[in-house]
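It is worth pausing here to work through a concrete case rather than discussing structure prediction in the abstract. The textbook approach is simple: state the sequence, then state the predicted structure, then interpret. We follow exactly that order.
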Amino acid sequence: MVGTDMAERSVGRFLCDAFHRVPAGSDPRFGDAMLDVARREEVDVILPQSSFDLLGLAEAKAHFEGVALMVSSPDAVRRSNDKAESYALLDEIGVPGPRWRRVVGGAAVAEAAGELGYPGEDVALKPAFSSGSRGFRILSAEADRREQLLKNRPGVAEALRLEELVELLGGDETPLLVMELASGLERTIDGIAEGGQIALGHAKTRESMRAGLAMYFATLDDEWLMEISAKIVEALSLDHFFNIQLVGDKVIEINPRISTIVYQEDLNLPWLGVKHALGEISGEELAAHRDRVRPTRRALRYFDQVEWDEPFA
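Step two, the predicted structure:
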């Protein structure tokens, strides 16, 4: 197993047989760097894990001859990673999502927030291009900065009043989404797609947040979640891994990549996805594993640590 990262001290390197530093996924050199690693290490399949790496790999896919590159088309990646495009797609295909506005600058944020019910209702803000909880903020007329200062841990995402945000943004030209603040249980659907069809997948809860990451998961048997996922996967013609996230009954994220997996001793989605990408099992054989999904399955995350020695310079 060969690992790559833009950081030398990536913990994942210690899980790999070989490791290479590469440029950031947004760097124009990223595709060529990954192709060089693939050739030098005689790689059979590439499994990207970061949203920031997807587009560079998708655009370079034609050059990876003889290497199974587990990424959807550039168009699917762009539409998924651009949250405004994602929400427009949800509206188009009749899948529930939050009410939203795509805006630039503080004045436009204020106008959009008012249209969505602020100050009577809290709303959410997020960069149009982002990953996970990066840049996500709640706009609330009841935000109490003094209480946050005295009681919150460092790094906790804090609610802002609209006037504070407008002052911070000024004329910043970053595309932003102002959207309805969805509420309720967080759930995701993880799966493997083939030509816009779900070959294998299941739903799970996403609970006990810490630093923006879910720490507890419960596998679900929910046909409605699988049905709306099928609509999204088909509309985007997704291939390989996907992850669709909901809060309450509203879809808030479409990720055309692998995410946190709940493992079973008889069901290992990453390994099945790799074997499928290599042509070792068919879509029909993947589908035959659906009956193995156990709604009783649970997963609890925790933090571990590695140690090593480095030679003196």
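Step three, interpretation. The chain has a mean pLDDT of 93. DSSP finds ten helices and 15 strands in the chain.
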